[in-house]
Inverse folding.
């Protein structure tokens, strides 16, 4: 059992590092081929930020563990709101009044609601449901492309456009870029396999479902890049990065990750998701939307409430969910 935890942790580290390497290599390669920065940002960078969740979800579906994929997406979205916003807010208040935040909050809530509705319509989720969700990410990217062309200062767009050749460790020649991409893809596959295989072993060892492992260990692990990004940005005096990062990640998790996972194989929806976790995901998204609509910053008190709420959520999932 200890070895399973160890290798799952190794898998998470490999997945996160490989995803970053792959994105940097692919972005630099696209620049070498003359692809506009806007296209790079809206495709390679945007999908790359959700690479850990997507690889785990698709591999879990292909290995017949689709319930792990569903738990990962739901758990990641909950962690993104309550933890990735709660922790930074303890450092510095997070503003919610930037351009485009309200719009993206609505889209994130709509995506989560659509996911829940589709899951209740038919379970396990099949390819046609995955196609609907994945169609959502295509429509979203086309919409963001039109906004960018119109000169919008949407915070999610700004985040997508941040990666520049020669900065932040981006490779500066084509050979290096290709090596980055190859190593990244290999690492993503290896990391994803380690996570899925050992998550299943841990679930069996504790006598719990793969869904619960997905909601907790795997969800927090695959959300670490988002959590780390917003905490570091907030400590550096840029808390506005947090809200854009969280909203963008949650939209991609549902549309791209869940969509791709369901296209790869049936996605089982455990009863505890329907009874409890779906509603936590929807309520946390709704609470965030209310803060945004009121243009109310997420301060230390709210950050404390969010963080405590997440700890309580984990305790319920671990100790009560198996009986739901």
């Amino acid at each position: 059992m200890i070895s399973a935890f160890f290798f799952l942790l190794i898998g998470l580290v490999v997945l996160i590092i490989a995803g970053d390497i792959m994105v940097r290599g692919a972005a630099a390669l696209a620049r070498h081929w003359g692809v506009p920065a806007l296209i790079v940002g809206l495709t390679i960078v945007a999908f790359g930020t959700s690479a850990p969740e997507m690889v785990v979800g698709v591999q879990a579906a292909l290995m017949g563990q689709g319930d792990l994929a569903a738990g990962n997406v739901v758990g990641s979205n909950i962690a993104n709101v309550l933890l990735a916003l709660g922790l930074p807010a303890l450092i510095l208040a997070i503003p919610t009044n930037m351009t485009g935040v309200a719009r993206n909050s609505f889209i994130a809530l709509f995506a989560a609601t659509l996911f829940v509705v589709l899951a209740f319509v038919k379970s396990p989720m099949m390819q046609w449901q995955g196609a609907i969700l994945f169609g959502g990410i295509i429509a979203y990217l086309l919409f963001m492309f039109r906004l960018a062309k119109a000169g919008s200062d949407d915070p999610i767009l700004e985040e997508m456009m941040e990666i520049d050749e020669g900065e932040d460790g981006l490779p500066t020649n084509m050979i290096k870029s290709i090596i980055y991409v190859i190593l990244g893809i290999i690492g993503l596959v290896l990391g994803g396999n380690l996570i899925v295989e050992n998550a299943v072993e841990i679930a069996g060892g504790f006598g719990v479902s793969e869904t619960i492992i997905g909601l907790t260990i795997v969800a927090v692990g695959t959300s670490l890049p988002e959590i780390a990004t917003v905490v570091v940005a907030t400590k550096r005096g840029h808390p506005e990065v947090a809200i854009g990062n969280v909203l963008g990640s949650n939209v991609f998790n549902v549309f791209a990750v869940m969509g791709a996972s369901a296209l790869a194989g049936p996605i089982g929806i455990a009863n505890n998701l329907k009874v409890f976790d779906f509603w936590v995901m929807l309520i946390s998204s709704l609470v965030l939307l209310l803060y945004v609509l009121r243009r109310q910053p997420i301060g230390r008190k709210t950050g404390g409430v969010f963080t405590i709420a997440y700890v309580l959520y984990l305790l319920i999932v671990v100790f009560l969910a198996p009986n739901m």
